[in-house]
Write a structure and sequence with these properties.
With 255 residues, this protein is α+β, with helices and mostly antiparallel strands. Helices cover 32% and strands 22% of the residues. The chain has a 5-stranded antiparallel sheet. The protein has a 4-stranded mixed sheet with strand order 1-4-3-2. The two termini are 44 Å apart. The C terminus is likely disordered.
Length: 255
């Protein structure tokens, strides 16, 4: 998987099967405190994982926490490199895998209902489980979590970048936020003892709002009109770069 140790429940599984409330964006769904979700993260390191043989229309994998009656079904989105906990339930005392039998029976009934409704399904299969897979709402939640994480990283990295530029004796320093390279350097205006400038070079394709956010995080007291986009002075251009500079008072840059 492109994001190791990331297996997240679908919204339906989280709220209906696990009977949990939807947490705020500050808590990614793969970090929700539940034994089945925790086991799913551990299972990401274990291969191969046992397939649910009774589900034949898609590949679902078993998830069975040790010492717990919880059971789950995991679907791997190989294209996105992400795993999803798509169904969950509890094993009845004295029974072995009744959750998986119930899952099979439910998927067989779903297929029968779709056949009766006239849906054209792939022939030769006994079950239909695709209704359990992540939908548009799951993808929106995932994107919202990723956006929040990137924002938090930018809130930490951009001020740190400016601080490093202050200490670098005029040499540029670089970091990456929102998948975009950002370079900063601080220099004194020629012939001036009272003014310092901060230069920020944003490299690569990024929306205007990303540029605006980087500038706000770099100098919270500056407004948009305080920044001027220019060609980077005395530096070779990079594809897609935009260079900004703004005047800073010396006391604002001193500890």
């Amino acid at each position: 998987m492109t994001e190791p140790h990331r297996i997240r429940p679908t919204l339906r599984c989280l709220q209906e099967d696990l009977d949990l409330a939807l947490p705020p964006l500050t808590t990614p769904l793969h970090e929700v405190d539940h034994p089945l979700i925790s086991r799913a993260q551990q299972q990401a390191d274990i291969a191969p994982t046992e397939k649910i043989a009774s589900i034949d229309d898609t590949v679902l994998l078993k998830c069975k926490p040790g010492g717990s009656r919880w059971r789950g079904a995991i679907w791997e989105d190989l294209h996105a490199g992400l795993g999803w906990l798509v169904a969950a339930g509890q094993r009845t005392a004295g029974a072995r895998d009744d959750f998986y039998q119930q899952l099979r029976d439910g998927c067989k009934r779903k297929r029968a209902a779709l056949n009766q409704a006239g849906d054209r399904l792939a022939p030769g299969k006994r079950t239909y489980s695709r209704h359990l897979l992540p939908d548009d709402d799951d993808q929106l939640r995932l994107k919202a979590e990723q956006g929040y994480r990137l924002l938090q990283e930018a809130r930490n990295r951009v001020p740190q970048l400016v601080q490093e530029a202050r200490d670098s004796a005029g040499e540029p320093v670089r970091t990456e936020v929102f998948g975009t390279a950002v370079e900063a350097y601080v220099y004194r205006a020629i012939g001036s003892y009272d003014e310092l400038y901060l230069g920020l070079k944003v490299v690569g394709s990024a929306p205007d709002e990303v540029h605006d956010l980087i500038l706000r995080l770099a100098v919270p007291d500056a407004v948009a009109e305080d920044w001027a986009p220019i060609q980077a002075p005395h530096r070779p251009d990079e594809p897609g770069e935009i260079f900004y500079f703004t005047l800073l008072e010396v006391p604002d840059l001193r500890k």
